[in-house]
Write a structure and sequence with these properties.
This protein is an alpha/beta fold. Helix content is about 35%, strand content about 20%. It contains 18 helices and 27 strands. Strand 21, helix 12 and strand 22 form a beta-alpha-beta unit. Helix 3 crosses helix 4 and helix 8 packs across helix 13. The longest helix has 21 residues. The chain is globular, with a radius of gyration of 25 Å. The relative contact order is 0.09. 5-amino-5-deoxy-1-O-phosphono-D-mannitol binds next to helix 9 and helix 16.
């Protein structure tokens, strides 16, 4: 959460910083700010409440020639979203800091600083950092050692960049729990919380490890590990187009990302599913040997990624024939769970930086798991760097806060995982053959599902004035109903809940009336007859229903019942396919309601605080 950009260059950096913030805005959009050092001992700091565009307008009429600067877009944790709480924070006119994360002991530090005469001008936890730098700087030889000393006093998580107006040719960076990359240019260097911010100016990055700090000048980058020893963090070329974060003519990132799904799935399958099998190294070198020993799979994730895990549980238990548990990371990390013999820990995460999922992985590393595997979309992320085995999703950047293509690519990867484990154990050849065929068919089937955009658009008006909605599914479609409900509430702010359809009459049926639309995911599978009975129970209570059905389900639209037919597909991939119309539904309802689709209120894309 929050986005950081910094630059030490030989050219004016203001536009580079603001452009970087705009590319990072998906990480937080409550307020934004920039500090530019003028090179002569002064600094200009401009901050605005609201989106980066508001900051950009405020900067438009002033020419800033400074070649060193830092910038930030905020997702509020401590202190309301306001100009007063926007970063950079400063101590006097000299030190400036931008910070991602949470300083947990900020109250104690603030009290001590106030006793020492410091006056605070924000309600943030961050401001203690910059006053501490000011306070300790006379006692240390340079800015880097001052920052290192300050970090010894901090508890919590941070990725931060510090600027000193009296030393305009350097920036100091430090990370613990919040990602930071360094970008390499010609006689210039950059800093960001995500490489995406810097793609117009460089493709060459190194990633700081936990506890690292760095001294960044135009000419050089020196990195120090947690104990202060200078280390090398290799710089690598990053294979991503600079326009990867453009909307490509779509009205919203979310819509673009929905339509990117066939391509994203093709990319994830490429070179990994071939010759009737999942390739031996698809989940990393040595994964086949590991999978042959696995007796239990523990999946840990948050939000949409958790919903993907819930689908996988059905596949793993039914087709691989081993037990699987799925847990929300924020619960897993704070309870003493039972580690089954021969357990593999699988984390699912688009960003690879979700604080709870990362903490769950770190906890699991101290427990008796065989190994950890992450299915993740971001190559530079902490989960990727800290897991034993990695499946890189290759979905391409997902910018819309509401996850779409990451979900369907996660499901694709999880189905491949089932095949890979069966291969390693030499079991269930029938499932393996069927799954591989269905996976190869998937991009085309998704392409077909995308043609539902128009019919679903016409349903959206019927939801726009509703305050609540129920989503129903059974079996491996129950998590798809959960995902549909999450999407709807996230971007349209309509309260939506998902239920396993058989659970309705145990309570939620009391809510059903003409004002409570009920959405049902109903592929033609062995549970369809049960589901049909549940649908009748709801209809008898006067509800308005929307059924996403298999074309051979034989549902007919009639008053109070809208049916959207999906092309029939192999049952193994129907959870993936049925998530597409639900993505469209939430998108078009949000359009009708006029909410901010890509940056819904109160949310941010990457949840790097717990
Ligand atoms: O990056 P992750 O997959 O770890 O993120 C987990 C959740 O924060 C994320 O899926 C969130 O629920 C999405 N906004 C849902 O659309």
């Amino acid at each position: 959460m929050c986005g950081i950009v910094g630059a030490v260059s030989n050219r004016p950096v203001c536009d580079i910083l603001v452009d970087g913030l705009q590319r990072l805005e998906y990480r937080g959009y409550d307020s934004a700010g920039v500090t530019i050092l003028d090179g002569a001992g002064s600094a200009s700091c401009v901050k605005r409440q609201g989106k980066v565009g508001i900051l950009a307008s405020a900067l438009a009429d002033t020419q800033f020639n400074g070649t060193t600067g830092i910038a930030h877009t905020r997702w509020a944790t401590h202190g309301a979203p306001s100009e007063r709480n926007a970063h950079p924070h400063q101590s006097g006119e000299r030190f400036f800091v931008v910070h991602n994360g949470i300083i947990e002991n900020h109250d104690d530090l603030r009290d001590a600083l106030v006793r020492d005469g410091y006056v605070f001008s924000s309600d943030t936890d961050t401001e203690v950092i910059v006053h501490l730098i000011h306070q300790l700087s006379p006692h240390y030889a340079d800015l880097r050692s001052t920052v290192q000393a300050v970090t010894q006093k901090l508890q919590g998580a941070y990725g931060m960049v510090v600027a000193d107006s009296q030393s305009p040719d350097e920036l100091v960076v430090s990370r613990s729990g919040s990602p930071i990359v360094i970008g390499y240019g010609e006689n210039e260097h950059f800093i960001a919380s995500d490489p995406l911010a810097l793609l117009p100016v460089t493709r060459r990055f190194s990633v700081l490890e936990e506890g690292d700090s760095a001294h960044v000048t135009r000419e050089a980058v020196r990195v120090f590990d947690v104990s202060g020893v200078e280390v090398i963090r290799a710089a690598n070329d990053f294979d991503m187009k600079s326009d990867a974060s453009d909307k490509a003519g779509y009205k919203h990132y979310m819509l673009k990302e929905i339509f990117e799904q066939p391509e994203a799935i093709r990319r994830t399958l490429e070179g990994r599913v071939q010759s009737g099998a999942v390739s031996a190294d698809a989940f990393g070198a040595g994964s086949q040997a590991l999978f042959s020993q696995v007796k239990h799979i523990q999946i840990v994730a948050c939000g949409t990624s958790y919903n993907a895990g819930m689908v996988a549980r059905h596949w793993i238990e039914q087709h691989v024939g081993i037990s699987c548990s799925v847990e929300i990371a924020s619960e897993f990390r704070y309870r003493q769970s039972f580690v089954h013999d021969g357990s593999l820990l699988v984390t699912l995460s688009q960003s690879g930086e979700t604080a709870d999922t990362l903490a769950a992985l770190r906890l699991a590393q101290s427990l008796n798991y065989l190994a950890s595997l992450t299915i993740c979309n971001v190559v530079t992320s902490s989960l990727v760097r800290e897991s034993d085995f990695v499946y890189l999703m290759k979905a391409g950047p997902e910018i819309g806060v509401a996850s779409t293509k990451a979900f369907t690519v996660q499901l694709t990867a999880l189905l491949m995982l089932c095949v890979a484990v069966c291969q390693a154990k030499q079991t269930n050849q029938t499932f393996r053959d069927e799954a591989v065929e269905a996976l190869l068919q998937l991009p085309e089937s998704i392409q077909q599902a995308l043609t539902l955009a128009e019919p679903i658009k016409s349903l959206a008006d019927k939801f726009a004035d509703k305050h609540h909605a129920l989503f129903l599914g059974r079996g491996d479609q129950y998590p798809i109903a959960m995902e549909g409900a999450l999407k709807l509430k996230e971007i349209s702010y309509i309260h939506a809940e998902a239920y396993a359809a058989g659970e309705l009459k145990h309570g939620p049926l009391a809510l059903v009336d003409a004002d409570m639309p009920v959405v049902v995911v109903a592929p033609n599978n062995e549970l369809l007859d049960k589901l049909k009975s549940n649908i009748e129970e709801v209809r008898a209570r006067g509800s308005v229903m929307y059924v996403f059905a298999d074309s051979d389900d034989h549902f007919e639209s009639e008053p109070g019942l809208d049916v959207v037919n999906m092309a029939h597909a192999n049952h193994l991939i129907t959870p993936i396919l049925f998530s597409i119309p639900l993505q469209f539904l939430s998108y078009y309802v949000a359009l009708v309601k006029g909410t901010d689709v890509d940056q819904p209120r109160n949310l941010a894309k990457s949840v790097t605080v717990e």
